[in-house]
Design a protein that fits this description.
The structure holds two protein chains of two kinds. In chain A, strand 9 and strand 10 form a beta hairpin. The longest helix of chain A is centred in the N-terminal third of the chain and has 14 residues. Chain A has a ten-stranded antiparallel sheet with strand order 1-6-7-8-9-10-2-3-4-5. Chain A is an alpha+beta fold. The radius of gyration of chain A is 17 Å and the shape is globular. Helices cover 24% and strands 44% of the residues of chain A. Chain B is of the alpha+beta class. Chain B is built from 26 helices and nine strands. In chain B, strands 5, 6, 7, 8 and 9 form a five-stranded antiparallel sheet that branches. In chain B, strands 2-3-1-4 form a four-stranded antiparallel sheet, with helices on both faces. Classes of the chains: A alpha+beta, B alpha+beta. The interface between A and B is large, with 45 and 43 residues.
Chain lengths: 172, 685
């Protein structure tokens, strides 16, 4: 047991320099640290975890810069939702904020935490809900990306506890 | 004795008026609609009190950011939000009571497979907002309900014509808030970003401030004109002191009695009461220029009776504003008459260098009459009537652009308001649901947010049936134990509207027994549901205006006949001669409207009474052949007509067109009195 803990500790310590952690990053710093992202057509895979169950779906994702996002679900059922749909609103706002490097809209409701890799171009921004009303339903949202695209979005929901993980696959 | 009685009556009126009078009323509809149209007035109040701020940016995201910055500066707390989280926490304990319209319809039609398919599309869509776990809501019905509510409340930003737009809806703003909006509009309209303000309160403030400036300039010109004319004639400014004092007393007493009878005196009553100035000036001027007081008072009495009678007819119109104008003006006139009679006798003014106006005979009377006849015939042939309330006001280019953009970006161009009345809130909700079941359209209504108890029970039964038929097919997301747990009766709990906790819900209520629904569809016909009525504010108001216009035309004829009867008793064959110049003046003013392509509206019909009230005096004094009255009549006509003529230059359509009609009517009536009535040797032009 002691050995396992030691290995975990060593791995953790060695892993530390790979990411420079910034507490509660100002929106302006987050904006200036992120790369300019491009419009994209790619595949997505979604995994939603509820208490005791998990559902998966996949399909095509389209992001049009300056406009918004389209999710075209192809598995296990077929469904399309465009950026104009009210349902998409919050995820659309987040993706647009990242791509336009303008966080003033979400800065009011979330604290931003930026993590940048010192080894490669990967980065992540964690949005921690600070608005009490949002806090009752969404704990945090984490966005991962590289120098060209957003690669993953994780949404941690409370009441009910739901975790949504959307991964984007490029070049498939 | 008469003087003492007059002072006592005035004292009682003033004291009671000041004690019982309330703040002036400013709602235009309350001026023209009778009390039985209270739902229309309240609905109009509610919907016309909204301000929509439109934000234009490079795209909708930029527009949204501009909106947020603007709102932060304006004050987030001034906006009434849909407290989604409040409702959600309350409804979660009774989630099987709620169904979206679409899901309910599918369940009623027993299209369970479609319900299942929709639920899976919802579940697998990464962008869906899921508010309850599949183990509690395997068909995502509650999430679907909440999702639909969010779409109803939020006005989404949109892209249109190469720009992005966002809209901020504000309600119940104070005057200071709207001033702040104008300041912020200037601050945030920079470069590509633009802010447009729309809605009645914005137009009202913009127009009233612009009108106030214009009226100040006009008042200044009017005062200069009156002072110049008075000084030219009397070579003395002192004469103005009793004239102004009597007019102020007349207006004060008129206001007090009107406030005593009607409580809230409408601001338009004050505007129309300015006519008192023009009429009351006559009494004073005649007093100062005429030596034969006995003969003067005979004519003054006739003038008073005819004018009061013309205004008294307005009481029968069943229009609050007209009733107030009648009482206000009649009281003011009577008061000034008695002030002149009882208090002027002690005043002595010396006019050593009094100027007479040049004496001129009107030649070619027949030729001039023929010219007028041709003018009237051509003009009246072109007269058109309108009851469209929007023709009374023409917005500035900037405000009109904002309204056009708002209309362009609106998703639902058609909109009907339905008022629903019930004994209590449950009855109201049930009737709303009945309307929704009858009309195939999208709604925004209180019952969307809080269904009636009856509907909640029915929803629960529908979900129970769905579970009974289809729960087993949910094995993709539910364990057999979870399926077993959901089978059977669902928990019963009733959710009632909580207006205190959810302030947003109050927006749907006109009063305790009336709610309003907004339907995204044009509904022309009657709903045939007891307690539910379609309110088309513009159409209903236009209908009322048309009704009043027709009533007023009938009243004008009644007034003419009544006056003719009175004048016949006093002047026998001269009666028609007295009234004819006023009739010709009115016809000339309406012909002028026709020739200038201005459609005649209710307010122009009101102007007929005013022209009649103003100008009968001219004929009475002329036919009486009182020695010096011609000068007084001319001064009175010039001051009154000139003041109204200046009003034609105001930007507010209602005021400018009234000014036009009155100035043309008054001046032409005066000319007709010179042409049609022989005034002896004192011909003055």
């Amino acid at each position: 047991m002691y050995k396992i803990l030691s290995i975990v500790f060593i791995l953790f310590v060695f892993a530390m320099p790979a990411f420079s952690i910034v507490d509660k990053t100002p929106a302006s710093v987050v904006a200036s640290s992120l790369p300019v992202l491009q419009s994209v057509d790619c595949k997505f895979v979604q995994e939603r975890t509820f208490s005791g169950s998990k559902v998966m779906s996949s399909g095509d994702f389209r992001f049009v810069k300056g406009k918004g996002v389209y999710f075209i679900t192809t598995y296990p059922i077929k469904a399309t939702s465009s950026y104009t749909a009210a349902n998409n609103r919050y995820i659309n706002d987040i993706i647009l904020a990242v791509t336009k490097k303008n966080f003033s809209k979400i800065d009011k409701d979330f604290d931003l935490f930026l993590q940048k890799s010192s080894k490669n171009s990967s980065w992540s921004v964690r949005l921690m809900a600070k608005n009490e009303n949002i806090k009752n339903h969404i704990e945090s949202i984490k966005i991962f990306g590289d120098n060209k695209h957003i690669t993953q979005i994780q949404i941690y929901q409370v009441n009910p506890t739901i975790q949504t993980d959307i991964k984007f696959r490029f070049g498939d | 004795m008469g003087k003492k009685i007059f002072v006592f009556v005035v004292f009682v009126i003033v004291v009671c008026g000041l004690v019982f009078g309330k703040m002036p009323e400013t709602n235009l509809l309350k001026a023209v609609l009778p009390q039985n149209q209270s739902v229309l007035i309240k609905a109009s109040d509610k919907f016309s009190s909204a301000v929509n701020v439109v934000f234009e940016g490079e795209d909708s995201f930029e527009a949204e950011i501009l909106k947020d910055d603007f709102l932060n500066d304006f004050g987030v707390d001034k906006v009434s939000h849909f407290e989604f989280e409040n409702l959600l926490s309350e409804y979660n304990s009774a989630r099987s009571n709620f169904l979206s319209e679409k899901s309910r319809k599918l369940l009623l039609d027993k299209r369970y497979d479609d319900v299942f398919k929709n639920s899976r599309q919802f579940l697998y869509n990464p962008a869906s907002v899921i508010v309850s776990e599949p183990k509690d809501d395997p068909f995502m019905l509650f999430s679907d309900f909440v999702s639909n509510l969010l779409q109803k409340e939020v006005r989404y930003s949109t892209d249109f014509g190469g720009n992005g737009y966002a809209v901020l809806n504000l309600n119940n703003l104070q005057k200071s808030d709207i001033n702040q909006l104008f300041e912020l509009q200037k601050k945030y309209s920079v470069d590509e970003k633009k802010v447009y303000l729309t809605g009645s309160p914005v137009h009202s403030l913009y127009t009233s401030e612009r009108s106030a400036n214009e009226i100040n300039v006009i008042a200044l010109f009017s005062v200069i004109f009156v002072l110049t004319l008075t000084y030219y004639y009397f070579r003395n400014f002192k004469v103005l002191i009793p004239i102004i004092a009597s007019i102020l007393a007349g207006i004060g007493i008129g206001y007090c009695l009107t406030a005593l009878i009607f409580k809230n005196v409408h601001v338009l009553t004050f505007v129309f009461s300015t006519t008192l100035i023009g009429i009351c000036v006559d009494y004073s001027l005649h007093w100062f220029v005429e030596k034969d007081k006995e003969k003067l008072f005979q004519s003054l009495t006739d003038s008073l009776v005819t004018t009061v009678a013309a205004f008294a007819v307005l009481i029968f119109a069943n229009i609050p504003l007209l009733g107030q104008i009648a009482v206000f003006t009649a009281t003011g006139l009577i008061s000034v008459f008695f002030i002149v009679k009882y208090f002027y006798s002690g005043l002595e003014f010396d006019f050593p260098q009094k100027n007479k106006f040049p004496c001129l005979k009107i030649k070619y009377k027949k030729f001039i009459l023929v010219l007028f006849a041709v003018f009237i015939a051509f003009g009246l042939a072109r007269v058109k009537f309108t009851d469209d309330i929007t023709t009374l006001y023409k917005p500035s280019v900037e405000l009109a652009l904002g309204e056009r953009i708002l209309n362009d970006i609106s998703l639902d161009k058609s909109r009907t308001i339905v008022a629903v009345t019930g004994e209590n809130i449950q009855k109201i909700l049930e009737k709303e649901e009945q309307v929704k079941d009858t009309v195939n359209a999208k709604f925004v209504a209180l019952s969307d947010f809080v269904p009636s108890i009856k509907r909640q029970n029915s929803n629960r039964e529908l979900i129970e049936k769905l579970y009974d038929k289809k729960l087993n097919s949910c094995s993709d997301i539910l364990s057999s134990e979870q399926i077993r747990h959901l089978s059977g009766d669902l928990p019963q709990k009733e959710i009632l509207p909580n207006f205190e906790k959810n302030n947003f819900l109050k927006n749907f209520m006109l009063d305790e027994k009336t709610s309003v629904m907004v339907v995204n569809k044009d509904i022309e016909s009657d709903l045939k549901i007891d307690g539910a009525s379609v309110i088309n504010i513009a159409k209903d108001v236009s209908f009322q205006l048309e009704k009043h216009r027709k009533t007023c035309v009938q009243l004008v004829f009644g007034a003419f006949l009544m006056l003719l009867g009175y004048l016949y008793l006093r002047y026998e064959n001269g009666a028609f001669k007295i009234i004819l110049p006023s009739i010709c003046g009115i016809l000339t003013s309406f012909a002028a409207l026709g020739l200038t392509m201005q459609p005649v509206n209710l307010f122009h019909i009101f102007a007929m009474f005013l022209i009649l009230g103003f100008t009968l005096d001219y004929s009475i004094f002329r036919i009486s052949k009182i020695k010096n009255s011609a000068d007084a009549v001319l001064i009175s006509c010039l001051t009154t007509a000139f003041s109204f003529f200046l009003l034609t230059f105001t930007s507010f359509k209602l005021i400018s067109s009234l000014g036009f009609v009155l100035s043309v009517g008054i001046f032409s009536s005066y000319l007709f009195s010179l042409i049609l009535i022989d005034g002896g040797n004192d011909e003055v032009v």
